[in-house]
Amino acid sequence: MSLFASLKRLVAGSPEPVDQLYDAVVRAARQPGWYVEGAVPDTMDGRFDALVLVLALLMLRLEQETADNPRHPAARLSADLADRFITDMEGNLRQDGIGDQAVPKHMGRMMAALGGRLGAYRTAGLDAGAMADALQRNLYRGADVPAPALAWTLAEARRIAAQLTQSDFGRLCAGTLDLNH
User: Rounded CA gap, 30 and 13, in Å?
Assistant: First the structure.
């Protein structure tokens, strides 16, 4: 986000649509079901992985808009979401006491994680088995997970992806997104 956009937001007092979308992603990733029924570790890494899953699903939805037109406004919205993610993660690192010299290294890993997961979830697509494998590798980082937890997480990821597919692009551009049940 540019300095001008940040100042405009501060003066206006209302969040930009990209901030509203990102906040909806964060809310969805913080739902207790991920950590209870889904057995995602309720740790910094687990919360990061849940956030990246939901963000990746939204970014993949935006890719649907750009399939026939790479200059579609969805490409800009997706880039703005990635920028918002970077700003949020950098702020979290600094809040956790990570020093200025170490932040770029951590940010590089986080962006690589987002890009890798985007690729894994894109490749998995609608195939339930491939998506379960991608979740096992990425969300759970290869840890053994009880079958009911993986099944819950797969169903939740597919529910969110289906809800995103049905979301009107104009509403997304306006920052309107409700991913809760």
Answer: 25
Name the 3-class secondary structure at 139. coil
Per-residue pLDDT, 81 = 95
Structure pTM? 0.86
CB 84 within 8 A of CB 18: yes
Distance separating alpha carbons of residues 172 and 169, to the nearest angstrom: 5
In the chain, domain spans: 23-173
User: Amino acid identity, residue 133?
Assistant: D
Nearest CA-CA partner of 51 in 86, 76, 2, 94: 86
Q: Is the CB of residue 157 less than 8 Å from the CB of residue 135?
A: yes
Q: Report the distance separating Cα 57 and Cα 54, nearest Å.
A: 5
Instruction: Describe the crossing of helices 44-66 and 147-166 by its angle, rounded to 10 degrees.
Output: 30
